[in-house]
Design goal:
Bound molecules: iron/sulfur cluster
Structural class: alpha/beta
Radius of gyration: 21 Å
Largest sheet: 8 strands, mixed
Helix content: 25-40%
Distance between the termini: 46 Å
Number of helices: 12
CATH superfamily: P-loop containing nucleotide triphosphate hydrolases
CATH class: Alpha Beta
CATH architecture: 3-Layer(aba) Sandwich
Number of domains: 1
Length: about 325
């Protein structure tokens, strides 16, 4: 059985007249211990999907239909009290804004002990010992000293390590990390990605890693979902997608990576902007920005096609497959 399964998930934003459709027909699953990335530009719906899975949708967002199950148990029907047990203990979250995650007026140690004792009956002394061990596991030097310090006394990279240590204390089955390294400089970013990958492997924790950066995704995930305008447009094994992207949007994201530009050449950015959910174009929502778009693309919603590399929703791929299937005359 998959660890997490999302089926036909639709998320809307309530409005006086017509609700705005923010996420459309999302389908995917993640296996225990697997690392999955969700990638796309800002506004693609990646963070909203993370929030929908954990029932942390910003108002007036709501799940209009569909299901999210954790080891077969439906999560969309849980009460706020039941969610308190799932959040943290079974599904943990790591965000980009660390100062929002850590309480600035409590020491690191107090926050870690509180996290342990809010979910277990462990006494202070043992909780303190566990916390210091976890700080050492995430390679924080002088962990007993750091235990006494406050968040503002630590660097950004150190704070992110503390968050990972706190998350691991509760032994979750799944971590959802939303752009956790974006605010860090490149070297620290690489160290944190490596750490996150290692702790997920060593603790058997599955990871959903949300990012706008394919370069980062390549380092951490085994499988990738590409999102555009509230929909998944391609999904498959990360390395295969990177080597041979099937959807024109995925191709555009990869071509825009700085390492794809020749020295002195401008970056190959995709022209135009991500549409807002209230102004989603007809047919394939990517058509105004797609260099392969035809008349059909603005009229028909593409279906998913199973290619040798991935599953992708594009009319071009549909046409290729139907040509291949035509008998030779
Ligand atoms: Fe481009 Fe058409 Fe494919 Fe959409 S369906 S990605 S517009 S070719």
């Amino acid at each position: 059985m998959s660890l997490l399964t999302v089926r036909n998930l639709n998320v809307n934003f309530a409005q006086r007249q017509q609700p705005i459709e923010a996420l459309l027909d999302i389908n995917f699953s993640i296996e225990p211990g697997e690392r999955l990335a969700i990638v796309g530009e800002s506004g693609a719906g990646k963070s909203l999907l993370g929030a929908a899975i954990t029932q942390l949708l910003p108002k007036p967002g709501y799940i209009a239909s569909g299901s999210v199950t954790l080891r077969g148990k439906e999560l969309t029907q849980l009460s706020p009290k039941q969610w308190q047990e799932v959040r943290g203990q079974r599904i943990a979250m790591i965000f980009q804004d660390l100062m929002m995650t850590l309480n600035p007026v409590l020491s690191i140690g107090a926050q870690m002990v509180e996290a342990i004792r809010s979910h277990t009956r462990i006494g202070y002394k043992d909780a303190r010992k566990m916390a210091i061990e976890k700080l050492a596991q995430v390679r924080i030097a002088s962990p007993s000293q750091r235990f006494e310090q406050y968040p503002h006394e630590l660097s950004g990279g150190m704070r992110q390590r503390v968050i990972i240590a706190i998350v691991l204390l509760l032994r979750p089955e799944l971590i959802i990390a939303d752009e956790p390294t974006t605010a860090l400089d490149v070297t620290i970013q690489a160290e944190i990605l490596q750490l996150l990958k290692e702790v997920c492997e060593s603790h058997g924790v599955a990871l959903i890693f949300i990012s706008h950066d394919f370069g980062v995704v390549a380092r951490i995930s085994e499988r990738t979902l590409v999102m555009y305008a509230g929909k998944i447009v391609e999904q498959g094994a990360t390395l295969e997608i990177i080597n041979d992207p099937q959807h024109p949007y995925t191709q555009g994201l990869l071509n825009a990576l700085p390492q794809m530009a020749l020295p002195g050449q401008r970056l190959n950015q995709i022209t135009g902007n991500m549409p807002s959910p209230s102004e989603r174009p007809s047919g394939c929502a990517f058509h105004p920005r797609c260099r392969y778009a035809t008349e059909r693309c603005s009229q028909e919603i593409p279906s998913f096609i199973n290619t040798d590399v991935s599953i992708a929703a594009c009319i071009l791929l549909e046409e290729l497959v139907s040509h291949e299937e035509e008998p030779d005359v």
